[in-house]
Amino acid sequence: MGNVFTRIGEKISDYPLFAAEWEERAQEILPAGPFGFLQSGAGDELTLGQNREAFSEYDILPRVLRDVSNVDTSIKLFGQEQSMPVMLAPVGFQGIFHSQMEIGSVKAAAAAGIPFVASTVTSASLEEIAMAAPEAVKWFQLYWSKNRDLTASMAKRAEKAGYKAIVVTVDTGLLGWRKRDYRNGYSPLKLLKGAANYINDPVFQELVPELTEEHVREAILENIHHPNLTWDDLLFLREQTRLPIVVKGILHPTDAKQAIELGMDAIVVSNHGGRQLDSAIASLRALPAIVKTVNGAVPVLMDGGVRSGADVFKAIALGADSVLIGRPYVYGLAAGGQAGVSRVIEDLRTELQLTYALSGVSCTKNIDAAYLIKR
Ligand code: FNR
């Protein structure tokens, strides 16, 4: 806890202070195309807004006069320790935001002792990311290719490179209606900014014997969205890897139940940061019913709109085992590379530790719904 108190009076105003200010800084630096791609949501951005709004529907009901001189925010997932219940969400194409790409982000995650989830569409390959931060806990997010062998190959490469879980994202059967990107005529996919994992894949190389820009682009666009993927397909992945499989993009309790029945190892309650189905329920609002259905069978994670220590606390109180943050750390990357990501993480940590202490809890497992009151 030293960290929290030694910062009293520290001049930190030269840096952005989490969330909104990092977003402004990133906007100053990035061209309209990449910034719009990062910030915007689908449709009228109703879900994007509701992801934030949902957090203000709860207030914390703190307890006092408890010994909070030692606050321990750590948790364990799949036997791996993390220093707080926060992870870096899979965000593709980081090369469009900073020349350090995902390497800056994974090193910041390693330094902070929190897991990094690498996207399928990273700008550095999954092997390069792993080698840059061997000490980091890393998970690999899989976009299921239409070609099953390619799907299996990526999962196997991730396992070999030391990733500790496969996160299958299931809310992107088709790309959402991203109006800002259409207005800007912008897609990092078309620019091949997320092609590294494909170009380096032996199955992909067989599929696309001539790795010209045009052929690669065409093959990726052909493979990345898979509208006829169904539950049964997940069983195929189960046979390909021994790693835990995490299903990301669940909002309905019945889908959560189905995932567990198929032997999946965790769930991420997520609407893809409001970038896919607009008007989909806010993640935080979907969380309680899913927690109730899952009933402790597997870990339940959530993402969407987490911006502060209080937000993390509220998600944990509603039953999440951990949250993921997406845009905030990428704003940090855009504005300051690895150092920017570290700053975002450490400010969030400070705020989270203080939220624990001032709410009267000293460790994560003691946080429950009794610390919240709905407005
Ligand atoms: C994403 N997200 C995402 N998810 C995923 O499974 N694979 C991916 O490649 C990406 N790529 C991606 C790019 C960008 C620019 C953003 C903003 C998001 C979704 C991400 O993992 C996460 O679900 C949301 O970002 C969480 O919401 P917040 O924290 O951004 O509000």
Question: What can you see in these coordinates?
Answer:
Helix 2 (20-29) packs antiparallel against helix 16, helix 5 (101-112) crosses helix 6 and helix 13 (253-261) packs across helix 14. This protein is 44% helix and 12% strand. The strands form three sheets. It has an eight-stranded parallel β-sheet. The protein has a two-stranded antiparallel sheet with strand order 1-12. It contains 16 helices and twelve strands. It has helices spanning 2-6, 20-29, 32-39, 46-53, 101-112, 126-132, 148-160, 179-184, 196-199, 202-207, 213-224, 231-240, 253-261, 283-294, 309-317, 327-359; strands at residues 58-60, 75-77, 80-82, 86-88, 116-118, 138-142, 166-169, 245-250, 266-269, 300-303, 322-325, 372-374. The longest helix has 33 residues, at 327-359. The two termini are 31 Å apart. Ligand FNR is lined by residues 37-38, 51, 89-92, 119, 121, 141, 169, 248, 270, 272-273, 275, 303-306, 325-327.
Q: Could you report the average pLDDT, rounded to the nearest whole number?
A: 96
Helix content: 40-55%
Strand content: 5-15%
How would you classify the quaternary structure? single chain
Uncertain residue ranges: none
Bound molecules: ligand FNR
User: Structural class, please?
Assistant: alpha/beta
Shape: globular
The overall strand count is 12
Q: In angstroms, what is the radius of gyration? A: 20 Å
Largest sheet: 8 strands, parallel
Order of helices and strands: HHHHEEEEHEHEHEHHHHHEHEHEHEHE
The number of helices is 16
Distance between the termini: 31 Å
